[in-house]
Amino acid sequence: MPDEFEVIAEMVKTAGRLPKGYSPIGDDVAVVPPRSGLVVLKTDMLVEHTDVPAGMTYRQAARKAVAMCVSDFASKGVRPDSFMVSLGLRRGADKKDVEEVALGLRDAEERWGVHLVGGDTNEAEELIVGCAMVGFAKKVIDRGGAAPADVLVVTGPFGLPPSGLRIMTAGARSEAEFARRARKSVLEPEPDLEVGAALAPYLTSAMDSSDGLARSIHTLARASGLGFVVERLPAARGVMEFAAANKLDGDKLILEGGEEYVIVGTIRAPEVQAAQRAVKKAGGELTVVGRATKQKGVTLRAGGGLRAIRDGGWTHLSGR
Amino acid sequence: MPDEFEVIAEMVKTAGRLPKGYSPIGDDVAVVPPRSGLVVLKTDMLVEHTDVPAGMTYRQAARKAVAMCVSDFASKGVRPDSFMVSLGLRRGADKKDVEEVALGLRDAEERWGVHLVGGDTNEAEELIVGCAMVGFAKKVIDRGGAAPADVLVVTGPFGLPPSGLRIMTAGARSEAEFARRARKSVLEPEPDLEVGAALAPYLTSAMDSSDGLARSIHTLARASGLGFVVERLPAARGVMEFAAANKLDGDKLILEGGEEYVIVGTIRAPEVQAAQRAVKKAGGELTVVGRATKQKGVTLRAGGGLRAIRDGGWTHLSGR
Known about the structure:
2 copies of one chain form a homodimer.
Chain A: H1 4-15, E1 30-32, E2 38-47, H2 48-51, H3 58-75, E3 80-89, H4 95-112, E4 115-123, E5 128-137, E6 151-154, H5 160-169, H6 176-187, H7 193-199, E7 203-208, H8 213-224, E8 227-230, H9 239-245, H10 250-256, E9 263-267, H11 272-281, E10 287-293, E11 297-302, E12 305-308
Parallel strand pairs in A: 3-4, 8-11
Antiparallel strand pairs in A: 2-5, 3-5, 6-9, 6-10, 7-9, 8-10, 11-12
């Protein structure tokens, strides 16, 4: 098993190139050049038995740990600068595992333009990849700024990752092209910083959707002291057909599946078209799914009536 | 078992008071007010089966996780500002466990003047407390600045924590007053930011000593491209007697025990007395233990001769 120093050497070799002004990896602390603006921090921990489904490589797991933090930055309109990694490796981990983790961190650096600046290495009962990320910003969108009549928007479709998980781990059946897209959404989540930056000037509130669409909408509603009527469920192509073929509740896959890593937010109604153009220019797509209401609660308009959307989704430690 | 939201509520209630300019705990990211200077980052992860000996409470474990980061900041002469915590709780964890963790984080906030600004919560196979800390500084002492004829100094005695561990977990025997001090050094590590700040202006190189005195000296030697002659082993009171009574190698306890969380550094010889006065004023004590030499290698002057000090100590993943 490679020891701590061999692990650090591997990280430095594969993912440790740093611009001028940054300290080399390996001292007691990491030093990032002075920056102006608010200091924005996020930490998230990938834990093997809950976050790494069978079929996900260590390279993908390490990349995902960084993606989990990137997603939160994207939803706040902030570009991250650097990140640190706390690694917990199983006793039996070998050189190949460490190389895979280092490659996954490099994938993340290249994908999102962030720098690995340091970390630490431990032995643990399962793979743990803790990511702590820092960025700097003039402004950070919070969850509590929505006003009644604001429009509810999302930057991506929903339902693919939960479908992928069911294909990978529960034997759900699907045609090949859908299976490929669904698996990819699980193995290589793609939070988009360009879309986040383009959308930020228009947002009155926002958050990421890693715990599911319903949870995100309910959270924005509570934080802003209002409600939402959802007019349209933003289903990814093929999800409803997949659900029907596997006798699953398609609405639930979309509302409560989670792990989507797209942005859920609100925009003043007159600015929707400008925001859509800005997001399109950044390579994304902004979809209107509903509107804010003075009346609290989150409801879905369907079949000529309204029905409540429950606050379901992923709750850590809840046993779901 | 409390779910994620109950865990967050407990952290906010107990350890979540934040000054103006900080975002309240619980949004996707944490926001710290703008600061000037270099951005200093550190992450460290406390893992139950290697870092939490039998007899250590969850409160003490959580405090220790923060202390591990504080120690690195202290050794670099930097005052930390804020920290985030990534928590991994066992499936069976109960409300009391969460309260204990929150109290330990508050203990750390009060002891070192740092702010918990955010974190995340997970289920894991064992207790994991990842701490990610940020601070700001004009200058950060690195490991590579020592010059030949610099004096080697330490800010505390060595050997107490490894003695305490042997008393707590291996049935080693000792008289009561020593046992009390030794256990306390394990359960409540006391890295000292005041001492670090007072000493920083005099340091040419420095690091913390959590992996042991020998490891720290060898690391400074390698980073600075020189060697050290150690003239005196800085034994904590009672350690040599404890070692003798338990048929342990006292020198090894001092050199390779680890978990001391004191500063090991170098100072230009003419500045030693001024540095000692500054550290004393900050409530600490600065002890000269040797000097840097052009000749590489680390040796101990003992019995009229020199013998090599091996690069032993705690190496994560090494199986020691």
